[in-house]
Amino acid sequence: MRLDLSPALSKPELLAAPVVEALSKLPDADAIQVAPIDPDLADTAAFCEAYDVTLEQSANCVIVVGKPAGVYAACVVLATTRADVNGAVRRLLGTRKASFAPMDDAVGISGMQYGGITPIGLPSDWPVYVDSRVLAVSSAVIGSGIRGSKIVLPGTLIASLPGATVIENLALESL
């Protein structure tokens, strides 16, 4: 991994405002690090190639919405998988349909940049569903709320975030 890591709370300029606020309240915040990256390389495949991070170390946080109720949730899955939005996620939300939230909604409601959304600092009424495979990653790399940095933290810490629930088979293997 070729990231220049620093304790996350020591670099608030590398975090979205809701992430800084949430981190300041987390008991394990000292285990969370942040690294600056080129914002043009924030998307998973480009990031992993440029920074020598494997897809198995990289996690994605996607925002989904259940319809017709308009219930939002976050799903954290490894980059080697994809969230089972029409199966597991829809059932968890208790809705007839589920889909990825429109970009404008995800950005506007979360206060984070598209391509940098993280489960840390999301609205407190949103459930955070974490695929069980994320827990096995000792140093998971995920968004920081902005495109210009990434957070690195133990996968088990993601599962202990407020509102988080670990779900077996939340994600499907990517093709």
Automatic annotation (TrEMBL):
Gene3D superfamilies: YbaK/aminoacyl-tRNA synthetase-associated domain (3.90.960.10). InterPro entries: YbaK/aa-tRNA-synt-asso_dom_sf, YbaK/aa-tRNA-synth-assoc-dom. Residues 39-155 form the YbaK/aminoacyl-tRNA synthetase-associated domain. It holds the Pfam family tRNA_edit. This is YbaK/EbsC family protein. The lineage of its organism: Bacteria, Bacillati, Actinomycetota, Actinomycetes, Micromonosporales.
